[in-house]
């Protein structure tokens, strides 16, 4: 087992967290957490399952009464304490994340700070859950609308952002007055457990936030989606799994919010500032080794600037240094598993087999770890899998278009609708194209579009619901109408 060099070694947790207690699996089983940079086991974590999930759900339900008797301001103070502790321990949290997820340390630190911003934001929003007094149809009645917590929330989060995807769900749930049971990805449970430790230190009452690490996602998921005490399921992950969870949740008519797959296009028009377009595309495509849901997935470039764009992008990509995220010299870390490397390799091989040309990269790196070379690939068409499928890796496929209508049609030719990006200096085109793109979020001359203050989410098969901003509490609240008669 890896002995992490943390300033606070007690953040390195290996057990589940249920009802304020650290617990082993009922079965006594453990599973390995692997560093994707070198294949080493860094921890053996309790392998919880269905029985422990049931206990966490019951504890969450019982904790609701405690939370209901705490004022909005008191809830805010608890969340603020949690935020302060996350910021205080940001370096340790980044260290843990880089070890289990592989991203370079600077990116891990950026994610910790980004994730903490959601706790801070919803600490404030906890005090701003407002109702309404509606006009009445008769003089002797008053019509009130109040917001109440939905109840026990089940959350399932992915491995690519093992801190931020948790805080974006746990913070609004607690702010709204809910309790939450979290199933983190089996690849990255350590970040989730460290967050739970800090939440406990902040004094958040027991049972309100439980963490169920485990490899049996089916058994845990079935409990979370079928248990009658769970009133909402929130999930970030693949569209395929999201559809299964929605179907299972329908049996008890649970509220669901889903942040699912993406296939983000970048549209670079002839009048764009090419240097800025390359810079923005570079940042959006290769962050976290291309393993992000709003990652630039298809680069659609006008024919008149295509060659210039490809040349400049390829030159920037050539400077990447692949390596262990803990090493200062590394500028890109590994993919999460060997399967991920093989999936990316298959997509590139399909394109090359159909006539595409690799400008740079185009292969897995030999040696230890799950690395794939940063890649720019050209000469693509709509018959290739790269035009339709999400690329969770450092591969930039560049397509060519001739007109605005063609670019928009290409961008919308997908079942996904999470994020899209536009580069143009024509303000009229900014409006026209943004309005026609079938996406929940559009960045215009900007790819760093996410923050705690914006409503993050997609349309079509990219999901439902929004995370962050003032809209982020809506999915955790019920709207109750009260009619007062004989006034």
TrEMBL record:
Where is the catalytic site?
259
Record key words, sorted: Oxidoreductase
Which InterPro entries does the protein's record reference? Ald_DH/histidinol_DH, Ald_DH_C, Ald_DH_CS_CYS, Ald_DH_CS_GLU, Ald_DH_N, Aldehyde_DH_dom, Aldehyde_DH_Superfamily, Succ_semiAld_DH
Where in the numbering of this chain does the Aldehyde dehydrogenase domain appear?
22-482
Write down the PROSITE patterns for this protein, in alphabetical order.
ALDEHYDE_DEHYDR_CYS (PS00070), ALDEHYDE_DEHYDR_GLU (PS00687)
One Pfam entry for this protein is: Aldedh
Q: Which PANTHER family match?
A: SUCCINATE-SEMIALDEHYDE DEHYDROGENASE, MITOCHONDRIAL
The family note in this entry says:
Belongs to the aldehyde dehydrogenase family.
Protein name, as recorded: NAD-dependent succinate-semialdehyde dehydrogenase
From which source organism is this entry?
A: Marinomonas vulgaris
């Amino acid at each position: 087992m890896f002995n992490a060099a943390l300033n606070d070694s007690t953040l390195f947790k290996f057990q589940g967290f249920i009802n304020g207690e650290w617990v082993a699996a009922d079965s006594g089983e453990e599973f390995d957490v692997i560093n994707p940079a070198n294949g080493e086991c860094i921890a053996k974590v309790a392998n919880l399952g269905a029985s422990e999930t049931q206990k966490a759900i019951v504890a969450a339900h019982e904790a609701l009464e405690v939370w209901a008797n705490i004022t909005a301001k008191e809830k805010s103070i608890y969340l603020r304490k949690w935020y302060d502790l996350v910021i205080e321990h940001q370096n340790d949290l980044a260290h843990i994340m880089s070890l289990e997820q592989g991203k370079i340390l600077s990116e891990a630190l950026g994610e910790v700070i980004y994730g903490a911003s959601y706790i801070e934001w919803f600490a404030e929003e906890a005090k701003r859950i407002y109702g309404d007094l509606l006009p009445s149809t008769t003089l002797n009645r008053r019509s009130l609308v109040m917001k109440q917590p939905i109840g026990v929330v089940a959350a399932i989060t992915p491995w690519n952002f093992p801190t931020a995807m948790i805080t974006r769900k746990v913070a609004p749930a607690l702010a709204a007055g809910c309790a939450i049971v979290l199933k983190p990805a089996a690849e990255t449970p350590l970040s989730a457990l460290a967050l739970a430790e800090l939440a406990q230190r902040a004094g958040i009452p027991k049972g309100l936030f439980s963490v169920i690490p485990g490899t049996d996602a089916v058994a845990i998921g079935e409990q979370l989606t079928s248990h009658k005490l769970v009133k909402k399921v929130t999930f970030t992950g693949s569209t395929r799994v999201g559809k299964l969870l929605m179907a299972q949740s329908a049996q008890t008519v649970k509220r669901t919010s889903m942040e699912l797959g993406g296939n983000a296009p970048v549209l670079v028009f002839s009048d764009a500032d090419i240097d800025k377009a390359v810079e923005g595309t570079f940042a959006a495509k290769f962050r976290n080794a291309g393993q992000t849901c709003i990652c630039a997935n298809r680069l659609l470039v006008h024919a008149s600037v295509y060659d210039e764009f490809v040349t400049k992008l390829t030159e920037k990509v050539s400077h990447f240094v692949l390596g262990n995220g803990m090493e200062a010299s590394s500028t890109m870390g590994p993919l999460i598993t060997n399967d991920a490397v093989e999936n990316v390799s298959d997509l590139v091989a399909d394109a090359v087999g159909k006539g595409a040309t690799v400008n740079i990269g185009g292969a897995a790196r030999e040696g230890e770890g799950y690395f794939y070379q940063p890649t720019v690939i050209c000469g693509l068409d709509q018959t290739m899998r790269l035009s339709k499928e999400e690329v969770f890796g450092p591969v930039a496929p560049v397509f060519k278009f001739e007109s605005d209508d063609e670019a928009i049609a290409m961008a919308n030719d997908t079942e996904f609708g999470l994020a899209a990006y536009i580069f143009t200096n024509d303000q009229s085109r900014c409006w026209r194209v943004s309005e026609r793109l079938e996406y929940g979020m559009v960045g215009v001359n900007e790819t760093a579009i996410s923050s705690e203050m914006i409503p993050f989410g997609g349309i079509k098969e990219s999901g439902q619901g929004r995370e962050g901003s003032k809209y982020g509490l809506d999915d955790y609240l019920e709207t109750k109408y009260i009619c007062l008669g004989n006034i």
